[in-house]
Amino acid sequence: MMELSTTHLLDLSHTLAGEYLKQFVYPWQALEGISDLILTLGAALPEEDYDHPLPGVWVHKSAQVAPTAYLGAPCIIGPETEVRHGAFVRGSALVGASCVVGNSVELKNVILFDGVQTPHYNYVGDSILGYKSHMGAGSITSNVKSDKTLVAVRDGERRIETGRKKFGAVLGDYVEIGCNSVLNPGTVIGRDTHVYPVSSVRGAVPPASIYKKEGVIVPRK
């Protein structure tokens, strides 16, 4: 069985949410409080470093935000991050340092650790993306089951109930998601794992592995 705890998946030194995340055994337990967390963190950010263009919106002065991007409250955009043309930050988005939020990307109720790239046509909702993880073009998190029942995380024969109707994915640090892949509700991917393009992924995927297709997961060499 895979270790699914917060500290096994994520290096908490690479996000403003580190202290908040420490209190949770599993990272998806943190999704409920992201909005309140952002408002608390934002109120304490140094005014000399962050612009505050709208209530509940904080943007580091070194960040680049295209005039056509939408920043919905509450959100924090970290230093050296680029928010490109047509990005739609719906709200409840904590975006770290040196991230890319690209063309036509939509973020909602997420934590993006430092160095995360969502550069092209991605939807990321009710999810946590670890340090320097990368979503290939067109890859998305599916955060609601088709039958609208509560999401569970499956790890082999083990089933962990999350109690949440909306939960997309947790990506460990340095995860690479191939283009046009779908991460189904309750997907958890261990650190340093690569997912092939055009994959449909569900459940827990071990760290340091390559996900080729369902049932075909091999160790990275």
Automatic annotation (TrEMBL):
This is Mannose-1-phosphate guanyltransferase C-terminal domain-containing protein. It comes from Pusillibacter faecalis. The keyword Acyltransferase applies. One of its GO terms (molecular function) is nucleotidyltransferase activity. Keywords: Acyltransferase, Transferase. InterPro entries: GlmU-like, GMPPB_C, Trimer_LpxA-like_sf. The lineage of its organism: Bacteria, Bacillati, Bacillota, Clostridia, Eubacteriales. It comes from the Bacteria. Residues 74-189 form the Mannose-1-phosphate guanyltransferase C-terminal domain. SUPFAM superfamilies: Trimeric LpxA-like enzymes. It holds the Pfam family GMPPB_C.
